[in-house]
Design brief:
72% helix
Length: 427
């Protein structure tokens, strides 16, 4: 099977799901409230500003708190295909498709292509991926680049060409959303793992090459900070003044992981024999997760940024002393599930590659701790991406990979799709 055939077999089904759901939004002239708000108040305004200033756009200040690359790309595409809002929304679909193709293609290199397709379907049906693909919005564009960078780092053979792609894709991600500098974490961690395994001149050169991957992104970040006089454009520096570390972020990330994990746990092969004798590990992990959800204030609160998404709605169902009991329980289950996947990964012999992926998830979570706003859309894509690639590593070349992956992820995909349809019809 050629690389192109593998990519097609892995990607066509999840891409089709994305296109059907996006078509429902665009043809029905629907808007997803949070993304429409960002689109109309921020992103389209930056696109219009750069259009008027072209060919010398002023990047020192504009109407969005993110990097300028996505908006510059949309200006260029608009000049070719038409710059009215509806056309720009249609053009955004291609970034959603590209994200799904990258994720499913990478998963297809880890397991059977059809299994990769099933594992990618929940991401393709996620309301946050669909909403970004149907609005003028940066998320899918940034995650497209970030997932490509991670796929390159996870590759067993890091040729100069692969490292060049990793450097360019990381640069694109950081120039689009500057907080994606967290990608430097897993990139450098991969080099440290190589050094820990084997200390040789070849390994040192490989580590230096990975460090070099991060340099263009660091340079663009320093340039943007110098232009802005801060981490965001001046227009947003008062609004985004740091209120300190957002301590609920780890508990919230684990809670979301616990919400989605059951649909992927059913994919695990021989789970009972796998977890025999590991009960204490699961209990300790669950207790740690519960504490992450109970120690900081975790009750939903709009002024504090603890809002935005179904998980925050669930979290408000039972609150005691400003602590969300549902969120704490889900965080505990999420931590235990993470331990389950770690045990399965060790059994599959994928510990090194999974450690890099786990570092990426941790780095993206830590980056969000600097943000006072804990909207679900900041966590949804990395969680589903992590689950997809983790299960692809666990299944590997097993003969029953397709059958196992066709249950839980498919059910979650249907649930996502139904919820999206209900939202479109009801609102």
């Amino acid at each position: 099977m050629t690389a192109f055939q593998l990519l097609v077999r892995s990607a066509w089904a999840p891409v089709l799901i994305l296109l059907i759901l996006v078509a429902g939004i665009l043809l029905g002239d629907h808007l997803v409230a949070s993304h429409a708000y960002d689109q109309n108040l921020f992103h389209i305004q930056a696109v219009r500003q750069f259009e008027m200033q072209w060919p010398a756009p002023d990047l020192s200040d504009y109407s969005t708190a993110t990097g300028p690359l996505y908006h510059l790309v949309m200006v260029g595409l608009g000049a070719v295909f038409g710059n009215d809002l509806q056309t720009l929304r249609v053009l955004s679909v291609f970034f959603g498709i590209a994200l799904i193709v990258v994720v499913s293609g990478a998963a297809g290199r880890l397991t059977h292509p059809r299994a990769a397709a099933f594992l990618t379907m929940p991401l393709a049906a996620s309301i946050y991926v669909i909403a970004s693909a149907s609005h003028v919005h940066t998320d899918d564009f940034a995650w497209m680049a970030a997932s490509l960078c991670l796929a390159c780092v996870l590759a067993s053979n890091r040729s100069p060409r692969i490292l060049l792609v990793a450097a360019i894709s990381m640069l694109v991600a950081v120039a689009t959303r500057q907080n994606f500098i967290w990608l430097a974490g897993p990139v450098l961690f991969a080099g440290l793992l190589d050094l820990g395994r084997e200390r040789s001149s070849h390994t040192f050169k490989g580590c230096l090459a990975l460090a070099a991957v991060t340099l263009p992104s660091l340079a663009i970040l320093v340039t943007l900070v110098s232009l802005w006089g801060g981490l965001v454009p001046p227009h947003f520096q008062v609004f985004h003044v740091s209120s300190g570390i957002n301590w609920i972020v780890p508990g919230y990330a684990l809670g979301l992981f616990g919400l989605y994990a059951p649909f992927f746990l059913v994919v695990l092969p021989e789970p009972w024999s796998l977890l025999r004798g590991k009960v204490m590990i699961l209990v300790v992990a669950a207790l740690a997760g519960i504490l992450f959800g109970l120690i900081p204030v975790s009750a939903p609160d709009i002024p504090s940024g603890r809002t935005g998404g179904p998980l925050w709605t669930v979290s408000g169902l039972w609150v005691v002393g400003d602590r969300s009991i549902p969120l704490a329980l889900l965080a505990g289950f999420g931590a235990a599930s993470l331990a389950c996947f770690g045990i399965a990964i060790a059994s599959a012999g994928e510990g090194r590659r999974w450690a890099i992926l786990l570092c990426a998830l941790a780095a993206s979570t830590v980056a969000q701790m600097a943000n006072a706003q804990s909207f679900q859309r900041y966590f949804d894509t990395p969680t589903l991406l992590f689950l997809c690639w983790t299960l692809a590593m666990i299944l590997g070349d097993r003969k029953d990979a397709v059958g196992r992956s066709s249950t839980g992820p498919a059910v979650l995909t249907v649930l996502f799709s139904v919820l999206l349809v209900i939202r479109m019809v009801g609102f």
